[in-house]
Amino acid sequence: MIRILETKERVIADNDAVARKTREDLNEKKVFFMNLMGSPGCGKTSLLVNIIPYLKKRYSVAVMEADVDSDVDAKTIQDLGVKTVQLHSGGLCHMDADMTARGLEYLGLEDVDVVIMENIGNLVCPAEFDTGAHLKVMILSVPEGDDKPLKYPLMFQTVDMVVVSKKDVCEVFDFDSKRFEKNLRTRNPDAPVFYLSNTDKEGVGEFADRLIEKIEEFRKS
Questions:
Q1: Where does 21-220 sit in CATH, by number?
Q2: 5, 56, 148, 201: least buried by Cβ within 10 Å?
Q3: Which pTM does this prediction carry?
């Protein structure tokens, strides 16, 4: 008889154990951790640039920028006056729990209230790996299309909040918000959706307010 080892199941199980330990450590330190996911060019860094000024009024914020290479995004975020580190994945298309834990250790959590990790641009792999985050947010840009919840189900199933960026070009790309939300609800019936405009920052305050609510719920729990 041929013995079969399901390696993926073992990898996921090991990852989840590290993620649980990371979350426990963060809970003990009272540090809130958000994992931001989305495809390349969807607007992850732009979203951070817009919401960090809101968060800085109340919290000490730190950011981990994960990427295959370069430090372009980290420099952008560092200019906002928050602690920032660049994480290189060595060619991997996602951050797992162990890589995240090492990033948090390198970042240093002394006097930090909120950590945000901008995950590597991808709608597939990052959804499979728990990083130990308290909140998972994904951002979809209008040009990507309103059918993406059907094409990338796991990503939309696992997140707690959904942000739709570049709302101001919906007509150009035939993006139907009702159709999008109908597709989303087949995968995730509960995640709130926030529509953001690139031109006038419409929706940024609403999303920031909801994020602050989540942070405060965590701090009181």
A1: 3.40.50.300
A2: 5
A3: 0.92
